[in-house]
């Protein structure tokens, strides 16, 4: 049984424009020396705390000095949008789930995984509207269920359905950004959503919804740090410095936890307890171990078996272990 993953418009004209620009740049006679970039551009979320803190507390500046400007965009509209931005040459590093990375790689973008960021099972799950009558995955038949397209939540929903032998076409799946799902619950236009902390708590608190289950037993959610391959080739030392700064920030958080949660909550306009729950439902680890890469390969295999990608990629071919080893 096939459980199709929603494809977003990541890989159309933007890739052609990007490829053309790359070709033109390669014809230039004068090549820049290695590690000469003057700006590093990153996209992700504030809740990817080690990167947020590396920027906020000056760990990037400590690693790169004053000669390199660091541009942090923490208003990401999902992993698909991040890959669009990377395809357009707008960002150099991104933190995101594995699905959009694999889809982008399968469609020709030279995106490379340079480290894990976190894993989670309890930070993601199924939330049901208060009068929906949903108490298990089996109850999703005929229901309107929201999920962000081309995301780890999208994959989790399909894992729920597949494991419980529920045809995907028996569920009315609505593709919707996580931040828009609350309004849909308020308007009584949804029966359920597969979402993540802290969106889960916000929906529950403001609408009387309840959590049915999390990802335990269905999937382990992985988020990675990825980089533009061309940028890595031209600035190989930068990836090591980037990861070193992030690891320093992660240690800093351990001894400045309350300050981190308060800073993140203020930046997002969120409750401190929501930030605390997000952090505690994730394990922040920085590696490209065999277990981590096996998980990435599992996502490749899943997307290939569902027909979402046409080529069965080798995850290790686009996981560059040099930089996380050098950052130790």
Structure report:
The strands form two sheets. The protein has a six-stranded mixed beta sheet, with helices on both faces. Strands 7-6-8-5-9 form a five-stranded mixed beta sheet, sandwiched between helices. The protein is built from 14 helices and eleven strands. The protein is α/β, with parallel strands linked by helices. The longest helix is centred in the last third of the chain and has 20 residues, at 236-255. The model is unreliable at 8-20 and 23-29 (pLDDT under 50). The chain is globular and about 60 Å long.
Query: Can you count the beta strands?
Result: 11
* Residue fraction in strands: 15-25%
Helix-residue proportion: 40-55%
Discrete helix count: 14
Strand arrangement across the biggest beta sheet: 2-1-3-10-4-11
Largest sheet: 6 strands, mixed
How do the helices and strands follow one another from N- to C-terminus?
Answer: HEHHEHEHEEEHEHEHEEHHHHEHH
Give the class from helix and strand content and strand pairing: alpha/beta
Average pLDDT figure: 91
**What is the first-to-last residue Cα distance?**
44 Å
How many whole angstroms does the radius of gyration measure? 20 Å
What coarse outline follows from CA principal-axis ratios? globular
In quaternary terms, these chains amount to single chain
The gist of it:
By secondary structure, the chain is of the alpha/beta class.
Topology of helices and strands:
Blueprint: H1 13-26, E1 39-43, H2 49-56, H3 59-64, E2 69-73, H4 79-87, E3 93-97, H5 98-106, E4 111-120, E5 124-128, E6 144-147, H6 152-163, E7 172-175, H7 178-186, E8 192-196, H8 199-207, E9 210-214, E10 221-228, H9 229-234, H10 236-255, H11 257-268, H12 272-280, E11 283-284, H13 290-305, H14 322-326
Parallel strand pairs: 1-2, 1-3, 6-7, 6-8
Antiparallel strand pairs: 3-10, 4-10, 4-11, 5-8, 5-9
Helix pairs in contact: 2-10, 5-13, 7-8, 11-12
């Amino acid at each position: 049984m096939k459980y199709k993953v929603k494809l977003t418009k990541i890989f159309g004209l933007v890739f052609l424009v990007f490829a053309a620009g790359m070709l033109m740049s390669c014809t230039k006679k004068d090549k820049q020396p290695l590690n000469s970039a003057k700006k590093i551009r990153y996209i992700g979320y504030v809740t990817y705390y080690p990167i947020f803190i590396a920027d906020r507390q000056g760990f990037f500046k400590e690693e790169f000095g004053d000669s390199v400007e660091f541009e942090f965009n923490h208003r990401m509209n999902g992993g698909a949008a991040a890959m669009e931005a990377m395809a357009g040459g707008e960002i150099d590093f991104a933190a995101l789930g594995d699905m959009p990375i694999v889809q982008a790689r399968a469609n020709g973008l030279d995106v490379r995984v340079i480290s894990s960021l976190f894993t989670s099972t309890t930070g993601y799950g199924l939330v049901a509207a208060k009068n929906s009558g949903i108490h298990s995955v089996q109850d999703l038949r005929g229901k309107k269920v929201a999920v962000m397209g081309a995301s780890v939540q999208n994959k989790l929903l399909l894992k729920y359905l597949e494991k419980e032998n529920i045809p995907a076409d028996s569920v009315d799946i609505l593709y919707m950004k996580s931040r828009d799902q609350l309004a849909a619950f308020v308007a009584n236009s949804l029966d359920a959503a597969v979402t993540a902390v802290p969106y889960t708590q916000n929906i529950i608190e403001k609408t009387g919804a309840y959590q049915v289950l999390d990802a335990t037993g269905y999937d382990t959610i992985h988020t990675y740090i990825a980089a533009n391959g061309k940028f890595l080739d031209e600035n190989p030392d930068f990836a090591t410095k980037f990861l070193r700064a992030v690891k320093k920030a992660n240690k800093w958080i351990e001894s400045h936890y309350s300050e981190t949660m308060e800073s993140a909550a203020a930046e997002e306009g969120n409750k401190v307890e929501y930030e605390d729950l997000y952090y505690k439902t994730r394990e922040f680890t920085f590696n490209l171990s065999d277990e981590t890469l096996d998980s990435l390969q599992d996502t490749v295999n899943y997307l290939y078996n569902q027909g979402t990608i046409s080529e069965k990629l080798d995850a290790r071919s686009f996981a560059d272990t040099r930089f996380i080893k050098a950052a130790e």
